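Quick check before the chapter quiz. The format below is the same one you will see on the exam, so make sure you can read both the input and the output lines.
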Amino acid sequence: MTPDWIGAFVIGLVGAGHCVGMCGGIASMLSIGQSQPSKLIPLFYNLGRLTSYAIIGALVGGAVSSISEVGQLNNVLVWLRIAAAIFMILLACYIGRWWHGLVYIEKLGQTLWKFISPAGHSLLPLKSPVHAIPFGFVWGWLPCGLVYSTLTWSAVSGSAANGALVMLAFGLGTLPAMLLVGHSANFLNKLKNNVIFRHIVALALLTYGIYTGYGAFTILSMT
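Here is the expected output.
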Protein backbone atom coordinates (compact mmCIF):
# COMPACT_ATOMS: atom_id res chain seq x y z
CA MET A 1 0.00 0.00 0.00
CA THR A 2 1.47 3.33 -1.09
CA PRO A 3 0.89 6.81 0.43
CA ASP A 4 -0.95 7.79 -2.76
CA TRP A 5 -3.51 5.01 -2.23
CA ILE A 6 -4.05 6.09 1.38
CA GLY A 7 -4.29 9.72 0.35
CA ALA A 8 -6.78 8.91 -2.42
CA PHE A 9 -8.92 6.91 0.03
CA VAL A 10 -8.93 9.76 2.55
CA ILE A 11 -9.89 12.25 -0.17
CA GLY A 12 -12.84 10.05 -1.09
CA LEU A 13 -13.83 9.62 2.55
CA VAL A 14 -13.63 13.31 3.44
CA GLY A 15 -15.04 14.50 0.13
CA ALA A 16 -17.98 12.09 0.26
CA GLY A 17 -20.30 14.92 1.27
CA HIS A 18 -19.47 16.65 -2.00
CA CYS A 19 -20.16 13.43 -3.91
CA VAL A 20 -23.51 12.96 -2.20
CA GLY A 21 -24.44 16.56 -2.96
CA MET A 22 -23.63 16.18 -6.65
CA CYS A 23 -25.31 12.79 -7.01
CA GLY A 24 -28.17 13.40 -4.61
CA GLY A 25 -30.80 13.25 -7.35
CA ILE A 26 -29.54 9.96 -8.74
CA ALA A 27 -31.39 7.86 -6.17
CA SER A 28 -34.72 9.29 -7.28
CA MET A 29 -33.87 8.76 -10.95
CA LEU A 30 -32.97 5.13 -10.35
CA SER A 31 -36.31 4.47 -8.69
CA ILE A 32 -38.29 5.73 -11.68
CA GLY A 33 -40.44 2.95 -13.05
CA GLN A 34 -39.64 0.66 -10.13
CA SER A 35 -42.77 -0.40 -8.25
CA GLN A 36 -40.57 -2.01 -5.60
CA PRO A 37 -37.05 -0.55 -5.88
CA SER A 38 -34.41 -3.22 -5.21
CA LYS A 39 -31.91 -2.73 -2.41
CA LEU A 40 -29.29 -4.00 -4.87
CA ILE A 41 -29.61 -0.92 -7.10
CA PRO A 42 -27.30 1.30 -4.98
CA LEU A 43 -24.76 -1.53 -4.81
CA PHE A 44 -24.82 -2.13 -8.57
CA TYR A 45 -24.75 1.61 -9.28
CA ASN A 46 -21.63 2.09 -7.17
CA LEU A 47 -20.03 -1.00 -8.67
CA GLY A 48 -20.36 0.63 -12.08
CA ARG A 49 -19.10 3.96 -10.74
CA LEU A 50 -15.98 2.43 -9.17
CA THR A 51 -15.32 0.44 -12.33
CA SER A 52 -15.32 3.64 -14.37
CA TYR A 53 -12.88 5.25 -11.90
CA ALA A 54 -10.51 2.28 -12.16
CA ILE A 55 -10.65 2.29 -15.97
CA ILE A 56 -10.05 6.04 -16.17
CA GLY A 57 -7.10 5.70 -13.78
CA ALA A 58 -5.66 2.80 -15.77
CA LEU A 59 -5.98 4.68 -19.07
CA VAL A 60 -4.32 7.82 -17.73
CA GLY A 61 -1.63 6.02 -15.74
CA GLY A 62 -0.85 3.61 -18.58
CA ALA A 63 -0.82 6.28 -21.29
CA VAL A 64 1.49 8.63 -19.40
CA SER A 65 3.93 5.87 -18.36
CA SER A 66 4.03 4.47 -21.93
CA ILE A 67 4.68 7.87 -23.48
CA SER A 68 7.44 8.62 -20.99
CA GLU A 69 9.12 5.24 -21.60
CA VAL A 70 8.93 5.40 -25.38
CA GLY A 71 9.95 9.03 -25.64
CA GLN A 72 12.22 8.99 -22.56
CA LEU A 73 10.46 12.14 -21.43
CA ASN A 74 11.46 12.11 -17.78
CA ASN A 75 11.02 15.87 -17.49
CA VAL A 76 7.37 15.49 -18.55
CA LEU A 77 6.75 13.17 -15.60
CA VAL A 78 8.39 15.67 -13.27
CA TRP A 79 6.15 18.47 -14.54
CA LEU A 80 3.11 16.22 -14.21
CA ARG A 81 4.10 15.53 -10.61
CA ILE A 82 4.28 19.28 -10.05
CA ALA A 83 0.77 19.55 -11.55
CA ALA A 84 -0.37 16.78 -9.19
CA ALA A 85 1.12 18.69 -6.25
CA ILE A 86 -0.76 21.84 -7.29
CA PHE A 87 -4.02 19.89 -7.46
CA MET A 88 -3.33 18.47 -3.98
CA ILE A 89 -2.88 21.99 -2.65
CA LEU A 90 -6.06 23.17 -4.39
CA LEU A 91 -7.91 20.20 -2.94
CA ALA A 92 -6.56 20.94 0.52
CA CYS A 93 -7.85 24.51 0.20
CA TYR A 94 -11.23 23.16 -0.91
CA ILE A 95 -11.52 20.66 1.94
CA GLY A 96 -10.35 23.25 4.46
CA ARG A 97 -12.82 25.74 2.93
CA TRP A 98 -10.05 28.29 2.55
CA TRP A 99 -10.56 28.72 -1.21
CA HIS A 100 -12.95 27.09 -3.69
CA GLY A 101 -10.92 27.52 -6.86
CA LEU A 102 -11.27 23.79 -7.56
CA VAL A 103 -14.91 24.42 -8.51
CA TYR A 104 -13.79 26.41 -11.56
CA ILE A 105 -11.72 23.46 -12.78
CA GLU A 106 -14.73 21.24 -12.21
CA LYS A 107 -16.77 23.39 -14.57
CA LEU A 108 -14.32 22.69 -17.41
CA GLY A 109 -15.64 19.12 -17.59
CA GLN A 110 -19.21 20.24 -18.22
CA THR A 111 -18.62 20.41 -21.99
CA LEU A 112 -17.59 16.75 -22.19
CA TRP A 113 -20.38 15.73 -19.82
CA LYS A 114 -23.00 17.11 -22.20
CA PHE A 115 -22.01 14.42 -24.70
CA ILE A 116 -21.74 11.59 -22.15
CA SER A 117 -24.83 12.16 -19.98
CA PRO A 118 -27.40 11.17 -22.66
CA ALA A 119 -26.00 7.62 -22.53
CA GLY A 120 -26.92 7.43 -18.85
CA HIS A 121 -30.38 8.92 -19.29
CA SER A 122 -31.10 6.41 -22.08
CA LEU A 123 -30.88 3.61 -19.49
CA LEU A 124 -33.81 5.04 -17.50
CA PRO A 125 -36.09 3.63 -16.36
CA LEU A 126 -33.95 0.69 -15.31
CA LYS A 127 -35.24 -2.58 -16.76
CA SER A 128 -33.61 -4.50 -13.91
CA PRO A 129 -31.31 -3.75 -10.94
CA VAL A 130 -28.34 -5.04 -12.97
CA HIS A 131 -28.80 -2.17 -15.42
CA ALA A 132 -27.68 0.13 -12.59
CA ILE A 133 -24.11 -1.05 -13.32
CA PRO A 134 -23.79 0.60 -16.77
CA PHE A 135 -25.71 3.60 -15.43
CA GLY A 136 -23.18 3.98 -12.62
CA PHE A 137 -20.36 3.51 -15.12
CA VAL A 138 -21.61 6.47 -17.16
CA TRP A 139 -22.19 8.59 -14.05
CA GLY A 140 -18.60 7.99 -12.98
CA TRP A 141 -17.64 10.54 -15.66
CA LEU A 142 -19.65 13.29 -13.99
CA PRO A 143 -17.43 16.41 -13.72
CA CYS A 144 -15.94 16.39 -10.23
CA GLY A 145 -13.01 18.37 -8.89
CA LEU A 146 -12.17 15.57 -6.43
CA VAL A 147 -11.95 13.04 -9.27
CA TYR A 148 -9.80 15.37 -11.36
CA SER A 149 -7.44 15.96 -8.45
CA THR A 150 -7.02 12.26 -7.75
CA LEU A 151 -6.62 11.55 -11.46
CA THR A 152 -3.42 13.61 -11.50
CA TRP A 153 -2.01 11.09 -9.02
CA SER A 154 -2.89 8.30 -11.44
CA ALA A 155 -1.03 10.17 -14.18
CA VAL A 156 2.25 9.97 -12.23
CA SER A 157 1.63 6.54 -10.69
CA GLY A 158 3.99 4.84 -13.14
CA SER A 159 1.69 2.21 -14.63
CA ALA A 160 -1.86 1.39 -15.65
CA ALA A 161 -2.26 -0.92 -12.64
CA ASN A 162 -1.15 1.72 -10.15
CA GLY A 163 -3.30 4.34 -11.85
CA ALA A 164 -6.33 2.08 -11.53
CA LEU A 165 -5.59 1.34 -7.87
CA VAL A 166 -5.26 5.03 -7.00
CA MET A 167 -8.68 5.78 -8.48
CA LEU A 168 -10.18 2.64 -6.96
CA ALA A 169 -8.92 3.71 -3.53
CA PHE A 170 -10.63 7.07 -4.03
CA GLY A 171 -13.87 5.35 -5.04
CA LEU A 172 -13.76 3.06 -2.01
CA GLY A 173 -13.40 6.12 0.19
CA THR A 174 -16.67 7.51 -1.18
CA LEU A 175 -18.46 4.15 -0.99
CA PRO A 176 -19.74 4.18 2.63
CA ALA A 177 -21.48 7.53 2.17
CA MET A 178 -22.89 6.64 -1.24
CA LEU A 179 -24.30 3.33 0.00
CA LEU A 180 -25.77 4.83 3.15
CA VAL A 181 -26.89 8.23 1.91
CA GLY A 182 -29.99 8.40 4.05
CA HIS A 183 -28.67 6.64 7.14
CA SER A 184 -25.32 8.41 7.29
CA ALA A 185 -26.36 11.88 6.17
CA ASN A 186 -26.41 13.39 9.66
CA PHE A 187 -23.12 11.78 10.64
CA LEU A 188 -21.44 12.91 7.40
CA ASN A 189 -22.69 16.46 7.82
CA LYS A 190 -21.33 16.60 11.35
CA LEU A 191 -18.02 15.11 10.24
CA LYS A 192 -17.45 17.35 7.21
CA ASN A 193 -18.55 20.43 9.19
CA ASN A 194 -16.27 19.63 12.10
CA VAL A 195 -13.66 22.39 11.85
CA ILE A 196 -10.92 20.46 13.65
CA PHE A 197 -11.34 17.27 11.59
CA ARG A 198 -11.63 19.19 8.32
CA HIS A 199 -8.53 21.29 9.01
CA ILE A 200 -6.45 18.29 10.10
CA VAL A 201 -7.20 16.50 6.84
CA ALA A 202 -6.67 19.67 4.79
CA LEU A 203 -3.34 20.42 6.47
CA ALA A 204 -2.16 16.83 6.00
CA LEU A 205 -3.04 16.98 2.31
CA LEU A 206 -1.45 20.43 1.99
CA THR A 207 1.76 19.11 3.57
CA TYR A 208 1.80 16.13 1.22
CA GLY A 209 1.22 18.42 -1.76
CA ILE A 210 4.08 20.72 -0.77
CA TYR A 211 6.32 17.70 -0.16
CA THR A 212 5.46 16.27 -3.58
CA GLY A 213 6.06 19.60 -5.30
CA TYR A 214 9.36 20.14 -3.48
CA GLY A 215 10.58 16.68 -4.52
CA ALA A 216 9.64 17.33 -8.14
CA PHE A 217 11.37 20.72 -8.21
CA THR A 218 14.47 19.15 -6.65
CA ILE A 219 14.63 16.58 -9.45
CA LEU A 220 14.02 19.31 -12.04
CA SER A 221 16.88 21.42 -10.69
CA MET A 222 19.29 18.49 -11.01
CA THR A 223 18.56 17.90 -14.72
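If your answer matched, good. The two ends are 30 Å apart (CA to CA).
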